[in-house]
Each structure stands twice: as structure tokens, then as C-alpha cells.
Specification:
12 helices; 2 domains; binds NADP nicotinamide-adenine-dinucleotide phosphate; N-(1-d-carboxylethyl)-l-norvaline Dehydrogenase, domain 2
């Protein structure tokens, strides 16, 4: 299909790294006319062969469409890529990963240039983009009107979940989920370090690990209920005193196996501290309190 004949609105996409290229292919496959720009022009060439218009400059790309999507390395690259672009009357959707504070500042910056602004946090890896049942989606926050206007286009690439008019909300959700993932992968690395040089078939072990982690994630609902209700002893299944005792076994096993405790120790130390404060009848929710750092 010729992307110019679809009657669908044009999308301008800035940034053709792994994620930007996946977004580009999803919009082309869905029949959206697409203008692309990338700092290194050669990355636009394959997409030009697939029906995209390659713009010579970011400003030219921005001028081509009301919906402008930036998918760049970081917030700084968004500022530099758009420095010379006229954003008046544009709807800027920035799906570049950033902090909530960066998103709020970028929203002000965009509004000052006459654009509506929406920040996005992509909960997907490139192969999940444009694949309807992949489970991938994007958090969006900022201008509700701009989101409503472009939701259909956005949804052609990945599920679109609007989480509020505070431009920083999408990045907060995104980074919170990524932070949990980071902790999980830290645990996975430690588990493989324990068993790798032993007589353990790693592929079979991986299946056990995936099933165990999936089963344990159900505990997040109890944590939410405890934090909302304020009673951290409600619905406790595995009390903190027992868990701290268990942690000592985890740390000792690591030492026996010749594995560093550096990934496990910080969390174990926080749990020890909460127990020392007299909260042995809770489970993990009290650690959330310990993590709060007073703002300066
Ligand atoms: N890949 C993933 O799995 C994934 C998942 C979720 C979210 N994300 C987010 O999506 C965004 C893009 O990720 P990616 O995987 O596409 O990254 P990537 O493959 O490293 O691509 C980075 C892109 O940013 C451009 N860029 C870097 N610095 C720039 C600058 N100063 N000015 C203009 N353009 C600049 C690069 O242009 P050049 O080609 O010229 O270097 C390239 O287009 C990131 O914020 C990332 O966190 C990625």
C-alpha cells in the first residue's frame, strides 16, 4: 500500500535508533504517512525504501506533520534536535526515557514554543512494537486533548495508556516499573552466579526461576493494600523476623559458594534495620518507609 493514499494523518518521527525504527515500521505497516529524521542520515535510508519521507533536518520533519514524535537517547538530545524547529501548532509526543522532572520542564519548554506536549514511557522492547498481542504499551501523560486526538495513531504502534495531565506522570510510572525490573534482574544475576559452576542444568533452572518470580509477584498487591491502609501487619504471610533470618542464610550461602553478596546485601541491611526498630510482625512494606529521603 502507498502510505500517501491512506487518508490517515501524517506522523513526524525524530530518532531512528532501535526503538524509533520499530515505531516507524509499525506506523508504515498501519498505513500512516510518515516523515522521519535521524541525526545520522544513513539510518533513514532503509525506511525511505519502505515508504517513509526522509527529512533533511529536524525542523523540516517537524514542519511536515501536526503530530511530532521524538524517540531519542535522552532529554538533552531532544532539546538539541528540536533547537531550530518551529513547534507552534504542533503536538509534541516525547517517548524518550527521562525523569518526571525532565518531562515537566520539557512540557513547559514546548508550551512556551506554542506546542501541546505529551510525555511517553515505553513499556516494550523493539520487537514488541507493532505486534498487537505482544503486551507492549506506552504510558502517556500531559495534554489530555492532544492524547485524545492522536490516540488511534499511537495505538497502531503499541497500547496507549494515559496516566494523567501532570507531564511527569508517564515517566514516573515508567521509571518505577523499570526500577522494579532492575531489582529483579539483580536477583536473577545473583541466582545464576550461585548455580552456574555447579551441576545445575541452566535452562531447566531458568524455567524454575521464571515460574518462581511470577508466583512471588502476587505479593505486590498485599504491599499496596498495606501502604494504603497504613497497617503493615495486615495480611502478613511471611513475617519480617523470619525473612531476616532467611536473608542471613542467603548471604551465608553466597559466601559458601564463592559469590559476592553485593547485590543482596543492601536490601538485607534495610530489612535488618526495620526489624531492629521492632517491626518483626510486618513483612516488606516497612522498607518503603525507610527508603524515603527527606527533600532538601
Ligand atoms: N530499545 C529499547 O529496548 C527501549 C525500550 C523502552 C524505551 N526505550 C527508549 O527509547 C529511546 C530510544 O531508544 P533506542 O533503543 O532507539 O536507542 P538507540 O538505538 O541508542 O538510538 C538513539 C537515538 O538517539 C539519537 N541521538 C542520540 N543523541 C542525539 C543527539 N544529541 N541529537 C540527536 N539525536 C541523538 C541517535 O541518533 P544517531 O543514529 O545519530 O546516533 C538515535 O536515533 C530511549 O530513551 C530509550 O530509553 C528503548
Amino acid at each position: 500500500m502507498n502510505a500517501h493514499d491512506t487518508g490517515k494523518p501524517r506522523v513526524a518521527l525524530l530518532g531512528l535508533g532501535d526503538m524509533g525504527t520499530a515505531l516507524a515500521r509499525a506506523w508504515l505497516a498501519a498505513g500512516y504517512p510518515l516523515t522521519v529524521w535521524n541525526r545520522t542520515p544513513s539510518r533513514a535510508e532503509p525506511l525511505a525504501g519502505e515508504g517513509a519521507e526522509a527529512a533533511a533536518t529536524a525542523a523540516e520533519a517537524v514542519a511536515s506533520a501536526r503530530l511530532v514524535v521524538t524517540c531519542l537517547l535522552d532529554d538533552e538530545s531532544v532539546g538539541s534536535a528540536l533547537a531550530d524547529a518551529d513547534l507552534a501548532g504542533r503536538d509534541l509526543f516525547n517517548v524518550t526515557t527521562g525523569t518526571p522532572g525532565q518531562a515537566r520542564a520539557r512540557a513547559e519548554w514546548a508550551r512556551g514554543r506554542g506546542a501541546r506536549f505529551v510525555s511517553g514511557g515505553i513499556m516494550a522492547v523493539p520487537p514488541m512494537v507493532g505486534v498487537p498481542d505482544s503486551g507492549g504499551y506506552v504510558f502517556y501523560s500531559g495534554s489530555r486533548e492532544a492524547f485524545a486526538e492522536h490516540e488511534e495513531v499511537l495505538s497502531a504502534a503499541a497500547g496507549a495508556v494515559f496516566v494523567g495531565e501532570d507531564a511527569g506522570a508517564a515517566d514516573l510510572y515508567d521509571v518505577a516499573l523499570l526500577s522494579a525490573m532492575s531489582g529483579m534482574f539483580a536477583g536473577v544475576a545473583h541466582a545464576f552466579a550461585l548455580v552456574r559452576d555447579q551441576d545445575v542444568p541452566l535452562k531447566g533452572f531458568a524455567s524454575l526461576l521464571a515460574d518462581w518470580l511470577s508466583a512471588m509477584t502476587l505479593g505486590v498487591h498485599t504491599t499496596a493494600e498495606q501502604l494504603e491502609g497504613g497497617d503493615y501487619t495486615a495480611g502478613v504471610v511471611s513475617n519480617l523476623a523470619m525473612q531476616v533470618r532467611g536473608n542471613r542464610t542467603l548471604l551465608r550461602t553466597a559466601e559458601e559458594q564463592g559469590v559476592s553478596t553485593e547485590l543482596l546485601a543492601p536490601y538485607a541491611e534495610l530489612m535488618e534495620r526495620r526489624l531492629a526498630q521492632g517491626h518483626g510482625d510486618e513483612d516488606g512494606a516497612g522498607v518503603v518507609d525507610l527508603l524515603a529521603v527527606p527533600r532538601r
